[in-house]
């Protein structure tokens, strides 16, 4: 059985073993927008050195147990473009469409009620709403322009369509970098969603849902940048 080593990139590891994203997140290693550098290079560049050997051991141990438990990796290279697009629509776009508006009400509520005692909630409120607006516009562009073109290409294999897709992908990747940066800033503002002492239920729920938003979005961007768009 092949396990992972320091010449592998975080993007390639998460592609085979999606749960590795949890360990990369804990170690603050980017696996989506900047996930295409080998682990060795990442550990050399990081200002705060990370223990890459320990991280790899954790990932490999977890990967082996995951396989032994009968889990099967999805071979994304075998999945058709339409299947991947539909997977993204159901698991990520639909999630955002259901989640962003109710979550906005909670982020607003905790800012209103606790903003004077916890001033960082003002910046969180602002950044979340920039994220929301950007993401909503981004979903429209993918669903209206990009995804139909990808499905059209699958049927026709027309190189002109592939060229259009590749141009659109560049803009989508820029959007991903921007929203990824906003998620990082929100995480820093809240010290990785650390709750203050005596936090009320709304505060707890808002932070838990923001964390879920972060996880879901990193997976979403990973599937688009590192798998779907790589074909064009
Ligand atoms: Fe998307
Ligand atoms: Fe996207």
UniProtKB/TrEMBL annotation:
Membrane-crossing segments per the record: none
Broad class of the protein's primary localization: cytoplasm
Gene3D superfamilies the UniProt entry points to: nmb1532 protein domain like (1.20.120.520)
Subcellular location: Cytoplasm
GO MF entries: metal ion binding
tRNA-binding as UniProt keyword: no
UniProt GO cellular component terms: cytoplasm
Family matches, as InterPro entries: Hemerythrin-like (IPR012312), RIC_family (IPR019903)
Key words of the record: Cytoplasm, Iron, Metal-binding
Hemerythrin-like domain boundaries: 86-230
Name of this protein: Regulator of cell morphogenesis and NO signaling
Organism: Gracilibacillus ureilyticus
């Amino acid at each position: 059985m092949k396990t992972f080593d320091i010449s592998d990139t975080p993007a390639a590891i998460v592609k085979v073993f999606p749960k590795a994203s949890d360990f990369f997140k804990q170690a603050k290693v980017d696996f989506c927008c900047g996930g295409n550098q080998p682990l060795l290079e990442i550990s050399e560049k990081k200002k705060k050195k990370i223990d890459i050997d320990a991280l790899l051991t954790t990932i490999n141990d977890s990967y082996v147990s995951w396989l032994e438990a009968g889990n099967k990796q999805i071979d994304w290279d075998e999945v058709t473009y339409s299947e991947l697009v539909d997977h993204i629509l159901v698991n990520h776009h639909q999630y955002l469409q259901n989640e962003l508006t109710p979550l906005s009400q909670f982020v607003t509520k905790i800012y209103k009620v606790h903003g004077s005692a916890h001033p960082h909630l003002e910046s969180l409120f602002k950044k979340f709403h920039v994220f929301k607006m950007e993401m909503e516009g981004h979903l429209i562009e993918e669903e209206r322009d990009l995804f139909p073109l990808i499905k059209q290409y699958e049927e026709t294999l027309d190189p002109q369509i592939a060229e259009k897709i590749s141009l659109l992908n560049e803009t989508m990747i820029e959007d991903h970098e921007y929203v990824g940066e906003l998620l990082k800033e929100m995480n820093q503002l809240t010290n990785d969603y650390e709750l203050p002492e005596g936090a009320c239920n709304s505060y707890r729920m808002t932070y838990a849902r923001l964390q879920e938003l972060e996880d879901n979005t990193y997976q979403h961007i990973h599937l688009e940048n590192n798998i779907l768009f790589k074909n064009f």
